[in-house]
């Protein structure tokens, strides 16, 4: 059967969000983080639909209405959730013979680090409630998070060995066996592995969407650290060398666009937080870019704009999001064109 994993920059129907609530890790920071979710929802709703899950939705609808968001462009589903990282428990959509199929991969809290019993059920529950219309849901039987893979929609998959080969995800599979599964499930024939890459405060074991992102025309945007005194310097320099050695499936070289390095951000206990400009979200007609009230914000927006010409660049202040060790892309999952929302 002919399968294809679309690129994020292809046409979309909606973006999925899981709203923060008092019974999640956001409890103490709810007043800080909810405005970020409102800003994301407002930006997305200008271009496409927004699909929101949360244990209670009435107050969310009121917030969105006060923010001037057209609720006709929002679908709200009351479902229990553990947390807000929709990128990793939301459906990964593929196309089988040009028809969308939603893949419900297992989510185990990034290798059994955190509770995920509610989040692991979100895709199945949304399907049961009609959130995806009549589109088929497939259960591949693998642990896989959306933030751990990047696709160009034309047969190339970019990922990191540190995440996909972590012992608590799919320990029954060797690297060769796992790659073969990915090739079969996604219809890819060019799998690129990064062995290096590190982001302090990241709980995901180096998700690719915090480090390097595929873009149109054989382009890769990636984080670069030029400060030799920074703890990230060695790992990111090694990753940059790896990226320079990668080749597109049709030959030639990738166009590499380095993203600037924001100043270090810390939590209240002094722990480093994972501020990264690679965690942007591409939607219809725009790219939402995480910003951190940093002098490098403008440069990051400019670099991402070069990779996605013709799209509006929309900065979203994500200083509150990184307090729980993720950023903008991590809290969103796009639903491609053809998936009713």
From TrEMBL:
Superkingdom of this protein's organism: Bacteria
Keywords: Hydrolase
Short name of any one Pfam family annotated for the protein: PAD_porph
MF terms in GO: agmatine deiminase activity; protein-arginine deiminase activity
GO process terms (BP): putrescine biosynthetic process
Protein name, entry field: Agmatine deiminase family protein
Organism per entry: Trichloromonas acetexigens
């Amino acid at each position: 059967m002919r399968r294809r994993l679309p690129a994020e920059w292809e046409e979309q129907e909606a973006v999925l969000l899981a709203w923060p609530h008092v019974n999640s890790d956001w409890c103490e920071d709810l007043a800080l983080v909810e405005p970020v979710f409102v800003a994301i929802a407002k930006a997305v709703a200008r271009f496409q639909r927004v699909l929101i899950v949360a244990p209670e939705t009435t107050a969310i609808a009121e917030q969105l209405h006060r923010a001037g968001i057209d609720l006709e462009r929002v679908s709200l589903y009351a479902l229990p959730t553990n947390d807000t990282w929709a990128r990793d428990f939301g459906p990964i959509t593929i196309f089988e013979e040009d028809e969308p199929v939603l893949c419900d991969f297992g989510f185990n809290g990034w290798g059994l680090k955190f509770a995920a019993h509610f989040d692991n059920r979100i895709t199945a529950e949304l399907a049961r409630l009609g959130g995806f219309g009549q589109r088929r849901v497939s259960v591949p039987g693998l642990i896989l998070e959306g933030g751990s893979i990047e696709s160009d929609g034309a047969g190339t998959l970019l990922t990191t060995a540190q995440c996909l080969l972590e012992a608590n995800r799919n320990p029954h599979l060797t690297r060769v066996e796992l790659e073969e599964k990915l090739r079969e499930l996604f219809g890819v024939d060019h799998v690129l592995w990064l062995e290096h890459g590190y982001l302090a405060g990241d709980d995901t074991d180096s998700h690719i969407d915090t480090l390097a992102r595929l873009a149109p025309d054989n382009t890769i945007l990636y984080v670069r650290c030029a400060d030799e005194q920074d703890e990230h310097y060695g790992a990111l320099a090694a990753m940059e060398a790896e990226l320079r050695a990668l080749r597109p499936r049709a030959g030639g070289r990738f166009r590499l666009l380095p993203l600037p390095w924001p100043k270090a951000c810390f939590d209240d206990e002094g722990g480093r937080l994972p501020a990264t400009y690679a965690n942007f979200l591409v939607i219809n007609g725009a790219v939402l870019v995480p910003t951190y009230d940093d002098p490098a914000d403008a440069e990051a927006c400019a670099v991402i704009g070069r990779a996605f010409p013709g799209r509006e660049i929309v900065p979203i202040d994500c200083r509150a999001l990184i307090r729980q060790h993720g950023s903008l892309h991590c809290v969103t999952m796009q639903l491609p064109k053809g998936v009713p929302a």
